[in-house]
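User: Structure please.
Assistant: Input sequence and predicted structure:
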Amino acid sequence: MTSNRISVLALASYPIEAASTRLRVCQFVDTLARNGIDVQLEPMLDSETFGELYQSTSPLSLAGKIARRVLKSGVRIVKNSRPDLIWVQREAAIFGPSVLEVLATRAWKVPLIVDLDDSTWIPYKSPTHGTLARMLKFPSKTNALIRRARLVTCGSNFIEGHVRNLGTPTFLIPSCLDLSCYKPKEVQPQENTPTIGWIGTHTTFPALVELFPALDQLTKYHEFQVLIVGHGNQKINVPGNINIVFRDWSLEREPGDFASLDIGLYPISPGPWAEGKSALKSVQYLACGVPFVASPVGQAREVGLESVTNFFARTPKEWYDRIEDLLVSPGLRTSMGLAGRNYACEHHDANVLAQGLAERMWEVYKKSRDD
């Protein structure tokens, strides 16, 4: 006999401050509950420890603190009542092999669903903690989790192709947002100094630095300011006369920061890791009605409509030209922004995609009962 409701234990490395936890798990919880699926989130790290990840702390000291946090979380998990499904966002613990995931699924004999929004099977060198962190990450555990899972939800076509090659069923969930939260600013001023903006993390900030020469050249002919949010308090040598406003990233302020922009920037450094990125920033610009210029790398190639909602740029000259196109034409910014918002509503509505996720979760649960 099948229950009318099922319980899901969601394991994630990071707390809600991390976009992966917030946007790949938390924002789906209400819709899942309306479909009879009750989710209990268990992040391995608390907000304080997560905040220390990107500071210049000794990797060994940080690893010890993380290990203690994971152990405490493991104890809480063991004390939980048996769930019907285990849902892992990327990995339970950011260091070490997939011990928690395997123990939990074997102990409770319940099916595993994995969500991947990055190519975590590809070794990645941390810009903060370097080679030691890379050694502790155990990227090989991703493929082990994929093979163990009954379903893998994928943030990009690249990830989906990899999972299918390993023989596990997939469900594509592109980057998506609560569109009642991420939305265009209500009043569009007719005359203002345009704001060109970038919102990211210290790991992606180096790609933005590559655009500084083009931005400096643009200051010779156009008036604008640049808003940079979330660069990680790195020391920056800003060339020429670029007028830059720096802000720390804020969870509460993020939607408003995106909506405040007139032009968005999304430079992406190419490479194997970048091919799996799920183009979240593109979707955030689209949802907020902000025209943007992006590198055609990874899933960013698939999001939006070139020259309708956004531009692509591959060379320094293309970056200069496309940004200038938007700077000189408020009308073009408006039309592309409107088209972008419509595109987000059609393709990246979190409530719609959560409905599909609920259906897949029920399918996995019912099939496990029949096995």
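The chain has two domains: 6-176+349-370, 195-347.
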